[in-house]
């Protein structure tokens, strides 16, 4: 048991207590951030003449060595240390003696861990953003290839109006674009440096907090030391960002699972992203989509857990906050894994364009356009709605679609119908005429694609 305290204790810590309290098994993930933060702290201490230049250099060099050895596997982070901070400091002291003992001057593990977690989260945000950008590129490509791929658009999971695959994919483009925006926002708010806040009340040493903040790429120091050591808002915000990303992925997965059924056959998930059944030889299951949908619950869980952990904590640092780590690390990895897997699945998925079009043709998705035809020929919309309602009923009886009726049959229902009704209810016409920005008409979609193309270049 190597720990950083003990002077005021007369008894050894109970073994179970020690294990319950220790965080090394999971905070070892922060080794890089911990050493980066310590190096900046030491650089500042030297600059401020709190440590000599030589002492600073020895500590910095040794910290580099420790990190290198950990990364290469030469030095193992074992359970004999309470946490990652103790591990780094103990190893430093072992190698540099009294010089190493000066590292923690003007610092507490409270501001240290607050910094480590912020640095870690900041990198995570960047990685997640890259994955989102990759996914957006995949979606963009599918959009470009499918401006003319007609499919039914649904409301209530009932066929509603014809759209295109490009348009449907564009909805997800918007969602993931907003997700990236949220990440940017979270990162901006996160980017203030807590180092130098001490345990809770700052320190009496003449620290230059602006300097450490700038060394570590922050926009500046945090402005209240009590808040600095007990703020986990940025983690909650990021978990909420991840929850939204997962919610979007999960909705997308739900659609893919539906589209992949025998009943729809809109898509074929590639063999490399499907799994089989141990008993039913015919099965090809969309397990990856189902797992992503399922793991969404896990990420929501992390968000709810941390909100609950934080709700009763008085100022300033309390040990409850150590509970932020395992659930965050798990949620971070889960979301990144899901993004990568989902992107791969989408890239390799085959869209059965003929089935999509046939489904749109069968489901009276052009009924609104038929009503609009009557309106354009002088029938008030409410009357047109009711006429087309009767027309649909007739079609259902005859097992035909609107465009499969003869002009005579159409005119039996309303004498307003003329030959040009067939052009008006043609699915391509129905889509092409929807030209307001944001609608599926090709020219409208092309404008949007130009905006997306510029966006993806940034
Ligand atoms: N392992 C702790 C955490 O994750 C580090 C801070 C410990 N501070 C303390 N005063 N015990 O929160």
UniProtKB/TrEMBL annotation:
It catalyses: 2-(N(omega)-L-arginino)succinate = fumarate + L-arginine. Transmembrane segments: none annotated. It comes from the Bacteria. Its main location: cytoplasm. Pathway: Amino-acid biosynthesis; L-arginine biosynthesis; L-arginine from L-ornithine and carbamoyl phosphate: step 3/3. Its EC number is 4.3.2.1. NCBIfam families: argH (TIGR00838). Belongs to the lyase 1 family. Argininosuccinate lyase subfamily. This is Argininosuccinate lyase. It comes from Acetitomaculum ruminis DSM 5522. The gene is argH.
